[in-house]
């Protein structure tokens, strides 16, 4: 058994773990990341890429913002499409100058991995049988196997950044956790294609056939989604069937303008709202998808992971540099206040824009009335805009 020691052991090399590692490193706090998969696998996961200003600031603070500023697309508005027409919500105008940056999670992960490698920080990919020990004591540790050898990593703190299916949350005694969950009765079928986006900004569409979203990764690469049945299998959806369905849900002018091409990725994702409370158990801290999941409407998943990491990096910096436990004590509460507001927004935006199986004619009318109200009331637009660009981290 090989023994190692660090200050913070981070489980998971997704955006949460990598960003935390980088922020800690810049503050002089030693950390090791244990990741079950290999680097290429982590980089091949396709996920949303809408960054709130807070996430952009954090990437800058981590020293990895250069390419994002060069290649990211700054969007000052989003569009809502319903009743056969598009309506713009001006984020800039409604929030006093805030916007979002479109930059794929794959690219962000690549930048964070590059910075970690350049600083020669320790990341153990293909770490198997990761197990957490003694996190209710002052001397926690993490055991794992790597290349067939057993290792133990002793540390002061464990950061559980290992996603929804990770080992960290699962290591907490069930009685210590309160779990809140809602699974939606539909999925999102997503297609990535090497085609120019149909519009300059994202279009969220409410249609009797179901929700649709026109998004993008760059000026030459598009990402589109249509709401689908949970029974659907991705193999049943040819590219042509996907494009036909998307066109059928868009307004006529947008459908006409859509440029289609072969899909380079196609997948179905379920939609879930999930929160596990609290987010700290002694010396173990959960961050990102390990603690909470939002449905993707509103693109909050990555941004919530980033705000958790903001609080967690500050808690560790307070502890090591200021000799204060305040950040550690308040971590869970500070995160959860923001998490629940993002959960609420994501649930609300999902409820407003999707077709629910079995919904009656009155539900569609109520959705239409709310959408109409939204795009014609300054107050309502401001509510959407301030949530879309992200609520502040510090109040
Ligand atoms: N041991 C080690 N690593 C693990 C284990 C384990 N037992 N279980 C999971 N992991 C790794 C996964 O392989 C993955 O690389 O933890 C990582 C978790 O990364 P994400 O799932 O991306 O979660 P997070 O970093 O919280 O990202 C949050 O980004 O990926 C999106 O949908 C996600 O938008 C959300 C945000
Ligand atoms: C995406 O581009 O994948 C995306 C964008 C916005 C969302 C969800 C997903 O709300």
Characterization of this structure:
The protein is α/β, with parallel strands linked by helices and 395 residues long. It has helices at residues 15-26, 39-44, 53-61, 66-71, 91-95, 105-118, 167-170, 239-249, 252-257, 301-322, 326-353, 361-376, 378-388; strands at 2-5, 8-11, 31-34, 50-51, 73-75, 77-82, 85-90, 100-102, 122-124, 128-133, 141-146, 149-154, 157-160, 178-193, 203-205, 212-216, 222-228, 263-277, 280-281, 284-286, 292-293. It is globular and about 65 Å long. The protein binds adenosine-5-diphosphoribose (APR) and P-hydroxybenzoic acid. P-hydroxybenzoic acid binds next to strand 16.
Q: Which spans of ≥5 residues are poorly predicted at pLDDT below 50?
A: none
Please report the distance between the alpha carbons of the first and last residues. 46 Å
- How confident overall, as mean pLDDT? 97
C-alpha-based Rg, rounded:
21 Å
- How can the largest sheet be summarized? 8 strands, mixed
Q: State the helix count.
A: 13
Structural class based on helices, strands and sheet pairing? alpha/beta
Query: Beta-strand percentage?
Result: 25-35%
- What small molecules does this complex bind? adenosine-5-diphosphoribose, P-hydroxybenzoic acid
Assign an overall shape: globular
Helix proportion of residues, in percent?
A: 25-40%
Strand order of the largest sheet: 7-6-15-16-17-14-18-21
Task: Tell me how many strands there are.
Answer: 21
